[in-house]
Amino acid sequence: MPESLAPSRSQVALFSLAVTLVAFPNVRFGGGGVVILPEHIAIPIFLLLLLARRTVAPPARSRLAIAGVIFVIFWSLFTLASSVLVALDPPQSLRIMAWIASNILSSILVYSLRTLIPYSLNVITSLLMLVILVTLIGWAVAQSTRQINDFVEADYASLVFRLQGFFVEPNLYAAFLTLVAAMLYAWNKVVRPRLYWTFMGMGGFSIYLTFTRVAWVAFAVVLTASLLRTLRRRPLLLSVAVVGLVFVFVFATMGNQQGQDSRSGDPLFDATVGRITGLFNTAQGTGYTRVLTIESALSDLTTTGAWWTGFGLNGYSQVHDTGVTSWAAPYLPTLWIAIFYDGGIVAGVSFVIAVTLFWLASRRSRGTIFFASFVLLAGATNNVWFAFPWVLGAIVVGAASYVTATEPPGQKRAAHSRSFALTTP
Fold first, then answer.
1. Short-list 392, 333, 400, CA closest to 364
2. Is 178 helix (H, G, I), strand (E, B) or coil?
3. What pLDDT, on the 0 to 100 scale, is given for residue 263?
4. Do 202 and 248 touch, CB atoms closer than 8 A?
């Protein structure tokens, strides 16, 4: 394959900026029923870069990735049909459908611009670290003043501030940071080691402050894989790291079985212990609410015979005026149930096939951890309404098709080689 031409600095800067815009979904513009997010502004930037792509030769496309896009289109078309023909509030469903359509378009554009990815990842990581730093400062201010602000959510049950960054809720911010970490793991040979581990530290601490248990588990998988790869030649340090992670897992399991309820007087410490000891607890709290909501959704599909048609996008909130508990909103937070509830069985199966195909397309570039994290996180939150899983997924799949390219600027490599490999044995 011929060596690709290096992109200009302006191309790298624009691409990095556009990708970073997915970190601000709670910053909104517009009115009169029309809402524009920063991630929507990224689309014309991607289109502009695509028009200028003649300076960068694209690498080979993956047939599996193309097949995955086809099944995503199937999913969106069946869900669109349900939203138009079956939904109780079609305009609401169609507004969300428009968001999702823009997300799909963004992912296709990012994949089409995948040659820019290795040149931009260090810049993207640096920009995201600045975003994280701002949100951490916001959390510190809230913690010191005991006053809520735009970067945190008050958890009155545990008396702590949960970090939510520029997202609607802490769970989504935790999912975003975890998927970014998994994406960087797939592209680890491009990201500078010091930058990589700095992000892991800042991102990991931020994920902890969201108090999102499923994200703790998913990030622990990413961190363990990173440690195994980095410390494999240092068995002592590797053993200490693995033993520490195993201890946390055992502590969580034992605490859940024994129903520990310790109180130290420090809300942050008590919330941490409570989350860890209740890591797999579905008998109370949010885990219990999630189980009841899933049972309610499955009951709706069965009793009304709507398995084939679904109820339209965000159908659960239209069918139910109240949540399953006094503190729960009428919202179906589990993506793997929502895809069937919203669009019917054909739509749901199409989405599952699409994710499977994207995973198969990304295995060469360590994409398994990204898609395993996505599957786990999607069990606790419906994040496909926003652009970040689509864009980050496109970057991960792009790593697999990009086998060799000109060395990115500033990346140190051996003098005898001008290329780098992104595949592993």
1. 400
2. helix
3. 56
4. no
pLDDT 10s digits, 105-148: 999 999 999 989 999 999 999 999 999 999 999 999 998 898 99
Q: Which residues of 59-93 are buried (b: 16+ CB within 10 A; e: fewer)?
A: beebebbebbbebbebbbebbbbbbeebbeebebb
Type of residue found at 209: L
Residue owning tokens 């919202």: 331
Q: State the Rg of the chain over Cα.
A: 22
CA distances from 23 to 40, 129, 340 (A): 12, 11, 28
Rounded CA gap, 290 and 281, in Å?
11
Contact residues for 340 (Cβ-Cβ < 8 A; gap 6+): 301, 307, 310, 347, 348
Domain ranges (residues) in the chain: 9-57+64-408
What's the pTM value of the predicted model, to 2 decimals?
A: 0.87
Buried b (16+ CB within 10 A) or exposed e, 97-114: bebbebbbbbbbbbbbbb
Model pLDDT, residue 302: 93
Return the residue matching tokens 């079956």: 86
Q: Which two tokens stand for residue 201?
A: 């530290």
Confidence of residue 247 (pLDDT cuts 50, 70, 90): low
